[in-house]
Each structure stands twice: as structure tokens, then as C-alpha cells.
What we know:
The protein has helices spanning about 20-25, 105, 125-130, 140-150, 175-185, 200-210, 230-235, 245-255, 265, 275-285, 320-325, 340-350; strands spanning about 5, 30-40, 45, 70-80, 80-95, 160-165, 195-200, 215-220, 260, 285-295, 335. Strands 1-2-6-7-8-9-10-11 form an eight-stranded parallel barrel, surrounded by four helices. Strands 4-5 form a two-stranded antiparallel ribbon. It contains twelve helices and eleven strands. The termini are close together. By secondary structure, the protein is an alpha/beta fold. It has one domain: Phosphatidylinositol (PI) phosphodiesterase (TIM Barrel, Alpha-Beta Barrel). Helix 5 links the parallel strand 6 and strand 7. The radius of gyration is 19 Å and the shape is globular.
Amino acid sequence: MPKIFGHRGYSGLYPEQTRAAHIAAFKLGADGIELDIVPTKDGDLAVRHEPIIHNTTNVAEILEFQDRKTTHLMNALWVDGQLLKTIDGGEFKDSFSTLDFTMAELRTLLACQPFAFRKVPEGMDERLGIDPIRDFRVQNLEDVLIWLTEVRKIKPDFGLSIEIKHAAFFDKENIEQKIYDLLIKYHMNSKDNSIYIYSFEPCALRKLKKLGLKNQMIQLITIQGSTFEYLRDHKGPKSYADMLSKDYLKEIKAYANGVGPNKRLLVPKPGHPDTETIDFIKKLALQIHIWTFRAEKWQQGAGAHEYEKVSWLGSDYKNFEREVLDFVRFANVLLTDQPDLVAEILTQNKIR
């Protein structure tokens, strides 16, 4: 039976990456939560999906921070002092970045829901014990580990997946060492404690393995493109698609404990899983963490980024239940924005 992890918490209701979203996931049936970390100006690890924060916080409304607004280049490749290209993000004009804020400054910001069609039902804050001010503040990774310590007094096996964002681009930020140090500090460096480390960049997982991290590590794989590591250093697989080749899956086995492919890579069409690839992954005893299950159909003009279309429930699936059931046969972890809905589907089909 697969575990259900709230993707960025219960982001189908609450602002992603917040204590509110984490509380909702915990209380509404998730087996764990997934979060992302990015560096701050003072070297901390902020819990945000991206360094660019103007569309997920109220930073644009804070007068004292308006001088921080500028153009940011994400995953920029420079050759001989000249900008060659940007990858997986590109150029963000008139934007705010965590790299221009200390963690103390980020804590003053309130996260907001970037998708207008996602609304918290009346009375849910009170039912879940959520404070819409305190629990909407921007957090760092240590805040979450402290919270997890408390949560595990109630549910000892409640899990956590930590995704390192843009690891190769931020390689000078020493993120891997900071994660390792925090997991050691809170006695969470163990392969059997349901704490996973995610990265699209193999270099981050290799560094953590070299440091002596015992937690299980998952190589994320997206639909198209190449890793920043390959484009900059010509190291690793030429494309993400190559990561699912038998040769590279064997290489992943040497530095990670599993793979985390976009769901379309293993089930390209409803009811038609790529059984050859799935069986080979299982033969290597690698885990499969699948992302991302979202109950809403795509809502044009609702504020979501164009590149996210491939991850949302599309026209090829007519209902959420059928999509979820296509993956439960082989997945170890399902990442979802609505963990309670996935839990209900598994229960109704006598899987949970």
C-alpha cells in the first residue's frame, strides 16, 4: 500500500509550504508531507517552492521591502562573463527573491494561495486549530523539523520529504551540509525514519551520500529537458528521459534509494502503464515516488503557470479516482495536493 504525502502540505486548500498546510495534511489523512527548500540571504534554508516569492507571499504589499524588487535570473548559464541561457525558470522581472532577504525578514511575510479556485471552507481553520496569521508565516527547515518532532509524539511514523531546489545552481550555498547538520541535530539521520531527500540534480544526492547521510534519497525525474548539472558541467545523463534507461537506473541505484518520476513518465495514457520500466525499477529494489496528484481539472486563467499543465488532472482522465488507482499498484509514495481525497479513494477500494 502506498503512503500518501501532502505535496507542499495540503496545498489544495492552504497556502503551500506553510504550517497551516502541514497541519491540515497531518489531520486530514496524510502519511507525511513534502516540502521544498531554497537559500536565504543569510544562509538559512527557507521552506518555499522557489526563491521567487512575489506570487506566493504578501511581499509586494510591504512598503519597506519595495527596494528589493528587481530582475532575477534563475538557473542562468554564464560563459566568459556572458549570459548564455536560463533553464527551468528563466528571467523574472520586477520580482522578489529569498536570496535578498534574511530569514528574520522572511518570517514577517504571510504566505498566500496562488490559485484563486482553491478556497478554505468556512470553519475549517477552527476545526483544525489553524491560526491564519501565525500558521501562514514563512518557515525554515528547522521550524518544520521541530514541528515534526512534536507530531511524531502522536504519529511516530509521520513522514517528511525534503526537496532541494536547483541544487546545482545553488551549489555554493552548501545546502547539503546544512540539511545533514540539521538531521543530525534532531536525531533524524536514519534510513528507517520515513524522511526522504529529493533532488532533480544527482550532484546533491551524491554529496549527501558522501557526507554520510543515512536517510533514503530519491532521484526526481521530470518530463523534458536536462539537468542544470549536465548543461553546465556535461556530467550525468544528457536528458531527464535518459534517467529511466536501464543503464542509468543502475547508476541511480549506486547513490539513491529510489526514483520520483512525473506520473506521465510511467503511465503515459490511462490504463497503460510502462510495465517494462516499472518492473525493472522494482527489480533494482528502488522505490517509486510519484508526483503530483491534483483533483481539479485544469482551470485556464486561474493563475497557474503554463508549465504546470502537464502535472494537473488532464482531459485524458475523466475522474480523479481512476487516475489514482492507475498508480497504487506499483507506487511507494503518492504526492498529492489533496491527501484526504486520495486516502478516501484507497479506503473505498479496500487498499488502505
